[in-house]
Amino acid sequence: MWSSNYEYNRVMAGLIELCFSDGLLTVKDIASSLGVSLSYAYFLLKRLRRDLNFTIRAKPYYEKLGLRFAPCFMSVSSLSTKKALLEVFASLEYTLYAAPCDGHVRGLYFDFVVPMGCEGELLALLEFCSSSGLIDNYSLYFTSSPNNVVMGFEWYDFASHQWVYRWQELVDDVVKRADDSGFEFRALALGYEQAGTAKIDWLDLLILHHLELDIFTSLKSMASVAGVTPQDMGYHFKNHVVKRGLVKVVRPYWVHVPLQNLCMGVIDLRFSKLSCLEGFIKALNRKPIAYSYTYYQVDSSPSILLGCAMPFKEFSMFMSCLDELRSLGLLKEFRELFLDIENSRGRALPYELFREGRWIYDIESCFSKLASMAEAQRVEAKFARAAERAMESK
Hints:
Elements lengths: L5 H13 L2 E2 L4 H8 L3 H14 L3 E6 L6 E9 L3 H12 L4 E9 L3 E9 L3 H13 L5 E4 L6 E2 L7 E2 L4 E2 L3 H11 L5 H12 L7 H12 L5 H8 L3 H13 L4 E7 L8 E10 L2 H11 L5 E9 L2 E11 H16 L3 E9 L5 E2 L7 E2 L2 E2 L4 H30 L1
Antiparallel strand pairs: 1-10, 2-10, 3-5, 3-6, 4-5, 4-14, 4-15, 7-12, 8-9, 11-13, 11-14, 12-13, 16-17
Helix pairs in contact: 2-3, 4-13, 6-11, 6-12, 7-11, 8-10, 9-10
C-alpha cells in the first residue's frame, strides 16, 4: 500500500488510524484531522477502498438497541462434536461471530447478542449443553459493546517499511500510566450497564445492518432495499442513527502482516484497579497489537476481553509482557485463546428479527438440534460400553 513518497505514506497511515473512530466520521472531519483538502481526503478514501480493497465497518451500540453483547468460550473435547456445535450455534441469527479456538480453552468461541430480558434463555441453552455432556464447560460474559483500540503505526519504520516490536517499551508505558485517574473508564464501567434503550424502528436497523457490512453503502441503495425514498432513508440516518448515537465505533478491517503469518486471538484480562486497565488500553493505542475490547466486571475486578492480531512469533512476546505486568501487580490474571480464522463464521445484525417494536428471540430449533446431538451421543456411548463388556467377557 506504500509509495516512494514518504509524506504520502504518513498521511495514508494517519487516515487508517482515523478510521478507528468512536461514532461516525464525515469526510470533512477526516480532511480537517489530516490537514488536507476535502478533495484529497476523498481521493485517499477512494484509494483505500478501490485500489487496496480496504473495508471500513460500523459496530452498533447494542445496549441502545435493547441488546446485550455476550462473548462465550466453550470447552469441547470431541472434534466431531466441536464441528457439529459450530454449525448449530453459527446458524443462530443472534450469533455474530463463531470460530474454533485453542489455547486456554480448546473448543469454540462465539460473539452472541441477546435481547435484554432473554439472557436466561441463552444460559439455559448453554446449561443443557453442559449437563448433557456436549461440552465440558463454558464461560459466558455479558459485556459492553465493543470499543476500539487503534491499531496504528507507532511501531512502523517508514524508512525501512518494517514493523519494529518494542515490547519492553509497552511494559514501561503501562507502568507509567497505571496511576492515572481512571476517569474515562469509570464512565465506561457505568455506561455498559446504564446505556439505556433508544427508540428505534426497522429502517434504523436496516441502516445499521448495511453500515456493518460497508460504511460507504449509499443511502440510495439502502432505500431501494427498504422500498422507501432516499430522502426518507436520509431522515432516519441523520435524525435517528446519528443523533441517537446508535453507532458505537467505526473500524477498518485490515491486517498488517500476511495472512499465513497472522495470529488472531482473544485475551481475558482482569486488572487490580480501573486506572491500570485504562493505562493498559492507552498504552496499546497506535501499536500493531489489538483492535477491540469489551468491558465487564467480576468480583470487583475491572476486566476486558481484548481482540488481538499480530504475527505468531510476536504473540508469545506479548504473553511475556502480560506475565511481567502480573508480577508487578498491575494485572491480576489473564487467559488467552487463539482463533481459527479459516473456519470462522460471521454475520451482521439480524435487523429482520425486530418486529412490532421488539426483538423476536426463538431458539427452540437450536434446542431441538442439540437434544438430537445429545441423544445420538448417549446411544453411541451405550453401544461403546456394550462392546467393551463383550470384549471383556471373551
